[in-house]
UniProtKB/TrEMBL annotation:
Keyword Oxidoreductase: yes
Entry-linked Pfam families: adh_short (PF00106)
SUPFAM superfamilies named among the record's database cross-references: NAD(P)-binding Rossmann-fold domains (SSF51735)
Keywords: Oxidoreductase
Protein name (record): 3-hydroxy-2-methylbutyryl-CoA dehydrogenase
InterPro entries: NAD(P)-bd_dom_sf, Sc_DH/Rdtase_CS, SDR_fam
Record bears the keyword Oxidoreductase: yes
Protein species of origin: Rhodoferax koreensis
GO molecular function, one term: oxidoreductase activity
Family: Belongs to the short-chain dehydrogenases/reductases (SDR) family.
Top-rank taxon: Bacteria
Amino acid sequence: MQLDSSIAAIVTGGASGLGAATARRLAGHGVKVALFDLNAEQGEALAREIGGVFCQVDVTSEEQVDAAFAKARAAHGQERVLVNCAGTGNAVKTASRDKATGEIKHLPLANFDRTIQINLVGTFRCIAKSAAGMLTLDPLEDGERGAIVNTASAAAVDGQMGQAAYSASKAGVAGMTLPIARDLMNEGIRVNAILPGLFDTPLLMGAPEHVRAALAASVPFPKRLGRPAEYAALAELLITNGYFNAECVRLDGALRMAPR
């Protein structure tokens, strides 16, 4: 797929981090970009910067997602590209003992469910609704109608302590890549996933410098945190290279995460 002003795209989690970098890169090719995010201040500012449209949306809400797709399509037409970056994370052990008091606690199921609902169900919700819209489009070269890129994580494969919910959600994103690609293969819609490692996103920007340095040092090479622009470059490749389909691609500097 060639990226130009004839293409409309939606980027979830597009107001910051990986999503914002991807939105900027797509817009740099003239693509009409709609940003789905909860953060209205950042989302509106970025939309003005790139000449896009912002849609305030919680991906766990069917009604808000429907309204966001309607707003984006009214502004730009039916999207051919969807990049799912909306997500959340936490670090709580499945069960643990307080060293001082001996009190035993477990991960609240509401906490687990929220992570699954945002990272996995929210991603699938956007995929299904976007793909249904893409089916209405005329095919391009090779019969292609659209391209979808999802964000899993290296934690889908080697999650750390406290990441049961996060790893389960991201493993689900990776695991559904092939069957969804197969569901959509006769309609010319490709589906791929990126498994980022440690990236310099807002989640880590607020960490103390010694923590950031330790994380960077744990990456085999290059010994630094990943840059959102590097994620965006890979997302672009997965969109423009028509032979990429049903792939889960690690982007982590050869990192294999330790237990903690």
